[in-house]
Amino acid sequence: MTQLVKKQEPLAFRFADDGLVPNHPRWPMLVYPGAVRLPDYVDPAAVLEDVFGANGWGDSWRNGIYGFVHYHSRIHEVLGIARGAAEVRFGGDRGKVLEVKAGDVAVLPAGTGHQRLSASADLLVVGAYPPFGTYDLCRSTAEHAEALRTIPKVGRPDKDPVHGNDGPLLKLWQDG
């Protein structure tokens, strides 16, 4: 599957805490536009699952992106667009709206808000997680104070979900 992965530097986005969505205090959200080539003759979701799995990101799922603002305070998440396109707001209400399409990959450090604003009828997303952390779904101000304590404790993954051991994530997600 590595022949389907395009080596590139990601776009990096940092978001401030907006009172509902804490976002990550140190690490940027990474977006790899057109990171994975999805030929017509293969199952595009299986390609993304294979790429993520080969790089140690598992517990994958296939679905969409929730239409409400939410984040995960105890785990990082990668979202690969297998089919279709969507307009997604990352970082909470004061974040950034991005158009994502088939082949794009977004890597969200713990605490990064995300919300689907619109999508094509055929949208299919593959999500996955590093081998440590606990899935949670946060969406209210009641969870904010605890999230501020837990988000910095989620360690850096050993591998970039797209590029593995030598991926940009390892440089961009440094402690300190």
Describe the structure.
This protein is of the alpha+beta class and 176 residues long. The chain has a single domain (2-157), classed as Jelly Rolls (Sandwich). 12% of the residues lie in helices and 27% in strands. The strands form 2 sheets. It has a 6-stranded antiparallel β-sheet with strand order 1-2-7-4-9-3, with helices on one face. The chain has a 3-stranded antiparallel β-sheet with strand order 6-5-8, with no helix packed on it. This is Cupin.
Task: Offer a quick outline of the entry.
With about 180 residues, the chain is an alpha+beta fold.
- List the strand order in the largest sheet: 1-2-7-4-9-3
Helix content: 10-25%
Shape: globular
Strand content: 25-35%
Please describe the topology of this protein.
Blueprint: E1 11-13, E2 29-32, H1 44-54, E3 58-63, E4 77-83, E5 85-90, E6 96-101, E7 105-108, E8 114-119, E9 124-129, H2 144-150, H3 169-172
Antiparallel strand pairs: 1-2, 2-7, 3-9, 4-7, 4-9, 5-6, 5-8
Protein name: Cupin
InterPro entries: RmlC-like_jellyroll, RmlC_Cupin_sf, UCP019307_cupin, YjiB-like
Organism: Mesorhizobium australafricanum
